[in-house]
Amino acid sequence: MATRIRPASKKCTVIGGSGFLGQHMVERLLDKGYSVNVFDIRQGFENDRVQFFIGDLCSKTDLLPALQGVNVVFHCASPAPSSNNKELFYKVNYTGTRTVIQACKEAGVQKMVLTSSASVVFEGKDIENGSEDLPYAQNPIDYYTETKILQEKEVLGSNDPANNFLTVAIRPHGIFGPRDPQLVPIMVDTAKRGKMKVMIGNGKNLVDFTYVENVVHGHILAAEYLQKDSPLCGKAYHITNDEPIPFWTFISRVLVGLNYEAPKYKIPFWLAYYLALFLSFLVFILSPIVTINPTFTPMRVALAGTYHYYSCERAKKDMGYKPVVSLDKAIEKTVQSYPHLRRGS
Ligand SMILES: NC(=O)C1=CN([C@@H]2O[C@H](COP(=O)(O)OP(=O)(O)OC[C@H]3O[C@@H](n4cnc5c(N)ncnc54)[C@H](O)[C@@H]3O)[C@@H](O)[C@H]2O)C=CC1
Ligand SMILES: CC(C)=CCC[C@@H](C)[C@H]1CC[C@H]2C3=C(CC[C@]12C)[C@@]1(C)CCC(=O)C[C@@H]1CC3
């Protein structure tokens, strides 16, 4: 394992720091004694200990003031994965990330930790205990994944120890926890509309759901172990809870915890997939007249009905990663954090 260096200058910038993961990152970094800048297109919270820089990461002029005197940049900004806006994904995740790299180099930032995604290798087919050596998806399931691949390649390719610029990518999967605007709220909304009665597939497919504090821990370890000649330079690392769970067991535990019924019927994966494809075709045909955001998309069906869990052996070996919150505790903390989503509240 490489040596962990706690940098003398603990000044960092969290790009996307107003988001779900970003806010948890900021809180932990402050606890650990870092001085923290947040760069985001919006200010998501108030905190006197944080310096906010509001701007678009696609603009170097916006970025540069937020990077002065900074040692580490955490880049965890992205448009919401549920969007289908190809142009926006390319602009922010791909060209925007290139701009972030240029700005970091220009400002003399030494380390960049990218929040990538384990989905960069996922094509809608089963992956069991996948390692980081799996090839990138040749047919990514959506524009989000397509541009996360391009983004990760750019960041890892820019690792340049000779010029004192080191990069690493963290690949989490299915992040959940307090204040997540996506996973639990979408699940509850679907249940409220009576559409969470049916399991896709046989209910046995194992998936990684990763508690946000474990994801944060992985990012900070990566920043502290990333140094010249360390194995982390220019590499990607899976960060998971290391406790894969059947997708529908996880969904049921959260729903039951919030007083909703667990799904009890099953439909074959292929049937659900073709129904979702047909639905997205209808949405496309109707798009000039009406905008519809279906819950039931081919991407979600693929995520809900296949095995996709990943090995985090590389992170254990190179940076001593170990989840800090177990899945049981994480589900309990998450359920308790959403009193307003509880049925009957
Ligand atoms: N939520 C999940 O399950 C997973 C998320 N990820 C990655 O984790 C990262 C964080 O995701 P979340 O916190 O869930 O998303 P989020 O949507 O809560 O946060 C993203 C933040 O990026 C900001 N942002 C978007 N475009 C920007 C721009 N042009 N300039 C400046 N800021 C901009 C947004 O305002 C937002 O505050 C993303 O890179 C995502 O791809 C990876 C794996 C799983
Ligand atoms: C079938 C159904 C309606 C399930 C509701 C839960 C889903 C909203 C989530 C289940 C797995 C999640 C997931 C992501 C988003 C939310 C889910 C689809 C990501 C696509 C978020 C961004 C990533 O990088 C990968 C994630 C994989 C898991």
Please supply descriptive tags for the structure shown above:
345 residues, alpha/beta, two-stranded parallel ribbon, 15 strands, 39% helix, globular, binds 1,4-dihydronicotinamide adenine dinucleotide, binds ligand LLCNDLXC
Give an account of the 3D structure.
This protein is α/β, with parallel strands linked by helices and 345 residues long. It is 39% helix and 17% strand. Helix 1 crosses helix 6. The longest helix is centred in the N-terminal third of the chain and has 22 residues. It is globular, with a radius of gyration of 20 Å. The relative contact order is 0.14.
Largest pleated sheet: 7 strands, parallel
Percentage of residues in strands: 15-25%
Specify the helix fraction band: 25-40%
Order of adjacent strands in the largest pleated sheet: 3-2-1-4-5-7-12
Shape: globular
Number of strands: 15
Cα-based radius of gyration, to the nearest Å: 20 Å
Helix count, DSSP H or I runs of 4 or more residues: 11
Distance N terminus to C terminus? 49 Å
| Helix and strand sequence | EHEEHEHEEHEEHEEEHEEHEHHEHH
Cofactors, ions, other ligands = 1,4-dihydronicotinamide adenine dinucleotide, the ligand CC(C)=CCC[C@@H](C)[C@H]1CC[C@H]2C3=C(CC[C@]12C)[C@@]1(C)CCC(=O)C[C@@H]1CC3
Low-confidence stretches: none
Mean pLDDT: 94
Specify the structural class: alpha/beta
Short recap of the structure:
The chain is α/β, with parallel strands linked by helices.
SSE arrangement:
Blueprint: E1 11-15, H1 20-31, E2 35-40, E3 50-54, H2 60-67, E4 72-75, H3 86-107, E5 111-115, E6 127-130, H4 143-157, E7 166-172, E8 175-176, H5 183-192, E9 198-200, E10 206-207, E11 210-211, H6 212-225, E12 235-239, E13 245-246, H7 247-257, E14 265-267, H8 269-286, H9 298-305, E15 308-310, H10 313-319, H11 327-336
Parallel strand pairs: 1-2, 1-4, 2-3, 4-5, 5-7, 6-15, 7-12, 8-11, 9-14
Antiparallel strand pairs: 10-13
Helix pairs in contact: 1-6, 2-3, 3-4, 7-11, 8-9
Bound molecules: 1,4-dihydronicotinamide adenine dinucleotide (NAI) and ligand LLCNDLXC.
Residues 81, 117, 119, 173-174, 182-183, 186-187, 190, 295, 300, 303-304 line the site of ligand LLCNDLXC.
